[in-house]
């Protein structure tokens, strides 16, 4: 048999040893969009909750995600797969649950990435209208969509460098605004927001769901595990650091807004003005800083769209490489090793949604950014919970020299914590969406994800019957072809292990 050509040799291979800890941090932190979360999410949380306990909500979620990250990154030391949580579920709970998780994951990440174009178009439209350029939101969204699509096909380290610049400036401005809020305290610095009674009732579930969505992206270092240098260390460091950094930013920033507006006034101020953070900055620092903040909000959302675009593309690539879906999704660029086919597919999906929303005249903020974004959050919370269970089961079979804390205790605590968050998020989803209890939409979202999971499971069962070789390779990533070849040759596949 002749040797494979250079083109075929890299046709389904991602770049190796390209990303260090800082590069992984750039992807995960920009995906979380700190400025967008503070400027939009936190203010909305005050208005929705009608309480000041937003900082304590972030403390609870940060602790829960840290517990999850302990077992999650321990498992990542043994499994490197661009499909990340899909692969972890497949290797922990089995191939059928794995494909079910893959369908939920790909849909959730795709929806979350596309939802950002709605907010991006709205922010850009408002910003450019102030200088006399009055264009519809979708025109700005399409410009960003084209930019993200082009960068998504470039080498992964180029993407990391672009995100590094945007992230540094974004975080700096958030910290400047927060410091200004503390310096201009309305009634002195109060610690009332950290009282356990500051967050209660039905609103608690909505706040916790929004808080989790604000952290989404923290899990992405595992997606780049195949492209990371010294992945057994860098992935864990980047994941834990992301949660800690985001927790610090969110807790301090939300607390600073309370401090500037006053414990008794912040809810009313947030309800009356969803641009409260920028309004406070304008009053305290002047209109120039307010404008800078709004410009950086635009770059923040664009950076997040790029980061989630890369994450989604790698999930699609992982599924294509293992032939679970269209095999052409597993193709990479010969020159850059970027998952070009999957990236272009995600770009097409985003473009179709923007055009559809524009044609139907739907609201880009409410119907695209908020509804689609929060709905995807429910899917991702369920995915995190499922992955936590998979981690526990995986190490129950073999601890692989991991500590009792990483393989048993932390995963159990993470399951309890994330199970509680998912339960509260689902039963109080109507509060999160701002619709009446009993409305169709809050019921429809969990049903849609349940149907997706069911369809994924049925597809896996079909593969088991019709394509046993493909089924055998599910979750094995770059080693899937070896496992599949062994299955076709009826050779025991135990040797094609986890590492």
TrEMBL record:
GO terms for molecular function: transmembrane transporter activity. Its main location: membrane. GO terms for cellular component: plasma membrane. The keyword Coiled coil does not apply. It is a multi-pass membrane protein. This is Amino acid transporter. Signal peptide: none annotated. It comes from Glycomyces sambucus. The chain crosses the membrane at residues 24-49, 55-75, 96-117, 137-156, 163-183, 203-224, 236-258, 295-317, 338-362, 368-396, 408-432, 444-463.
């Amino acid at each position: 048999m002749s040797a494979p050509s250079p083109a075929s040799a890299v046709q389904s291979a991602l770049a190796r040893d390209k990303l260090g800890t800082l590069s992984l941090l750039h992807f995960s932190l920009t995906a979380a969009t700190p400025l967008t979360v503070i400027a939009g999410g936190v203010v909305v949380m005050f208005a929705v909750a009608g309480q000041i306990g937003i900082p304590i909500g972030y403390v609870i979620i940060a602790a829960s995600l840290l517990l999850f990250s302990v077992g999650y990154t321990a498992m990542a030391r043994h499994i490197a797969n661009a499909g990340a949580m899909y692969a972890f579920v497949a290797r922990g709970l089995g191939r059928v649950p794995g494909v079910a998780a893959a369908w939920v994951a790909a849909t959730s990440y795709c929806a979350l990435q596309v939802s950002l174009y709605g907010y991006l178009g709205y922010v850009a439209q408002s910003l450019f209208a102030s200088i006399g350029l009055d264009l519809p939101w979708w025109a700005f969204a399409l410009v960003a969509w084209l930019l993200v699509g082009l960068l998504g096909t470039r080498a992964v380290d180029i993407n990391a460098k672009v995100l590094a610049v945007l992230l540094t400036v974004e975080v700096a401005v958030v910290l400047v605004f927060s410091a200004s809020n503390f310096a201009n305290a309305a009634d002195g610095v109060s610690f009332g927001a950290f009282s356990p009674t500051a967050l209660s009732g039905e609103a608690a579930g909505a706040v916790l769901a929004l808080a989790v969505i604000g952290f989404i992206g923290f899990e992405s270092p595992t997606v780049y595990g195949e492209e990371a240098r010294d992945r057994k260390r860098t992935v864990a460091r980047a994941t834990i650091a992301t949660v800690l950094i985001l927790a610090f930013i969110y807790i301090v920033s939300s607390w600073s807004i309370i401090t500037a507006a006053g414990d008794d006034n912040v809810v009313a101020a947030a309800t009356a003005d969803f641009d409260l953070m920028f309004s406070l900055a304008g009053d305290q620092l002047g209109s120039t800083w307010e404008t800078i903040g709004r410009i950086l909000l635009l770059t923040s959302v664009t950076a997040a769209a790029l980061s989630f675009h890369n994450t989604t593309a790698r999930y699609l690539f992982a599924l294509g490489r293992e032939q679970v879906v269209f095999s052409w999704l597993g193709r990479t660029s010969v020159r850059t090793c970027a998952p070009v086919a999957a990236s272009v597919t995600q770009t097409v999906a985003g473009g179709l949604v923007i055009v559809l929303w524009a044609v139907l005249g739907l609201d880009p903020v409410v119907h695209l950014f908020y509804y689609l974004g929060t709905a995807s959050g429910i899917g991702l919370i369920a995915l995190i919970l499922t992955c936590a269970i998979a981690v526990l089961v995986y190490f129950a079979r073999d601890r692989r020299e991991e500590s009792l804390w990483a393989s048993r205790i932390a995963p159990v605590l993470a399951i309890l914590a994330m199970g509680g968050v998912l339960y509260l998020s689902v039963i109080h989803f109507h509060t999160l969406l701002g619709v009446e209890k009993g409305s169709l939409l809050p019921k429809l979202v969990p049903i849609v994800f349940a149907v997706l999971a069911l369809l994924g499971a049925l597809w896996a069962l079909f593969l088991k019957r019709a394509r046993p070789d493909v089924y055998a390779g599910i979750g094995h990533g770059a080693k899937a072809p070896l496992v599949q070849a062994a299955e076709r040759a009826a050779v025991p596949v135990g040797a094609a292990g986890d590492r």
